[in-house]
Structure formats: C-alpha cells, structure tokens
Design goal:
about 240 residues; mainly beta; Jelly Rolls; nine-stranded antiparallel beta sheet; 3-keto-disaccharide hydrolase domain-containing protein; signal
C-alpha cells in the first residue's frame, strides 16, 4: 500500500511539472535507431547538393586515421560546391536519402581539416530540410558573429540566426570531435553539443519546421565525418510553409 501511494505521488508530481511547462529532454535510448553509418560500405544513402559530385567529387570516401586512432573510412567533403542555393546559405551538403524525421537525436564524429580557414573555419549539420529554401542548420564556426557559429533558419529567405544560447566560437583542433543535435518539435527545442555531451554548446527554440531530412556539410571548407547515428521518429513529409 505504501508503495502504491509512493508511485501515485510520483505520478501526480510528474503531471504537475508537465502542466507547469516542464518536459524532460529525451535521450537517444528512448528514440528508435533509424540509421547509422561508418561509411565503410560507400555513400549510396547520401545525396550531395552538387549534382555533379560523382564526376567532380565534392564528397568522397577516404581512408585515414579515424576517431579511435585506427585506420578507417570516412565521408569527406573536399571544399566548395558548384551548387547555388536560392538564398544565401551553405552550398555544400549531403542529405540522408529517403528518411524524414520529426523528433530526433543525431550524433557524429567530425574533423575540420582546413586549418588555415580563419574565423569562419566551419563544418555544418542540417535538419528539417524540406526543400532548398526551407531548413535549419548549425554552423560550427571558429569564431562567433552574426554569420558564424550560430543556429540558422533558411525560410524562403537568406539564413537568419535563431540562436538563444550562443558560443564564443568552436574550439577546432586538428583531431576528431564529437557533435550532437537534439530536436523536439512539440516545444521547438534545438540543442547542439560539441565534445561535452552534457552541456549544450548552442541552443534555440523554433517550431517553423516540424519535419525534414538531415544532412552533413560545410559552408565552403573541407573536413571528414564518421560514426554517424540517427535516433528519432520517422514521419511522412508534408508541404513546406507558404512564402510570406
């Protein structure tokens, strides 16, 4: 009887906290694994923004020393792309094909190899991608300014920062780093992590896009991706919001 009263009290407490607006962030263990890729078997599941990337590869699989210090294959972006987006935004990205998600948690290992790129040395993660004019991305820039080291929305207009928790800059080194993006569509939560998986590196709140594809890329630099994992809720694609 005491145990039942204890469980009931905990349930009432949890419902009260939710009623007050508190919602626990999910963890990867609570979301089904949708896709993972170590790029050992090619990149057929990925669609580069540059349609000529097969003939003139801006993306390729390379063999190198991986995150664990052992020889591995990685997904490499080799620099700028010929793709011209409709609005000012990153031209060089690769989308995961045939998978649209709502809530998700994306983790990956990344290595920036353009060590002389200066303050805008970057790598990017994309999500909520509905078409070339509607999506989110995070720019891991070496230094922060309105166009770098921010969470952006592209909503039928040039990129706009929506970051509510900003970072001073991404502490790139020559080695590998772990990154994670957490998205909860119900309340618009976006949390981005860099190396420290317990404390968000950047954060935002926005509900404009509640579904879309995910992707990896850069604005105009080069670097490597490995150990990609996507946990989440697969959803049916809808229609992008009408232009305002």
């Amino acid at each position: 009887m005491k145990l039942l009263r204890c469980v009931a009290s905990l349930s009432i407490c949890a419902m009260t906290m939710i009623a007050l607006g508190w919602q626990p962030l999910f963890a990867a263990e609570t979301l089904p694994l949708l896709y993972e890729d170590d790029f050992e078997n090619g990149i057929e599941r990925w669609q580069p923004s540059d349609t000529d990337a097969i003939a003139q590869p801006s993306w390729e699989v390379v063999e190198l020393k991986g995150p664990a210090g052992k020889a591995t294959k990685a997904f490499r972006t080799t620099g700028t792309s010929d793709y011209q987006p409709p609005f000012r935004s990153p031209p060089n990205f690769a989308l995961l094909k045939d998978l649209t998600v709502g809530d998700f948690e994306l983790t990956a290992k990344v290595q920036s190899t353009n060590v002389d790129a200066g303050p805008h040395r970057d790598m990017c993660i994309f999500w909520g991608y509905q078409d070339p004019s509607h999506y989110y991305y995070v720019h891991f820039g070496a230094e922060s300014d309105p166009n770098a080291c921010q969470i952006f929305i592209v909503n039928n207009a040039a990129r706009t920062p929506i970051t509510t928790k900003t970072a001073e800059g991404t502490p790139w080194t020559a080695g590998w780093h772990e990154v994670r993006v957490v998205r909860r569509v119900a309340d618009g939560t976006i949390e981005v992590f860099f190396d420290d998986m317990d404390k968000p590196f950047m954060a935002a709140k926005d509900r404009t896009f509640t579904w879309g594809q995910v992707g990896l890329g850069t604005f105009d630099d080069n670097g490597n991706w490995d150990d990609f994992q996507l946990n989440g809720v697969a959803v049916k694609a809808g229609k992008p919001p009408a232009a305002k």
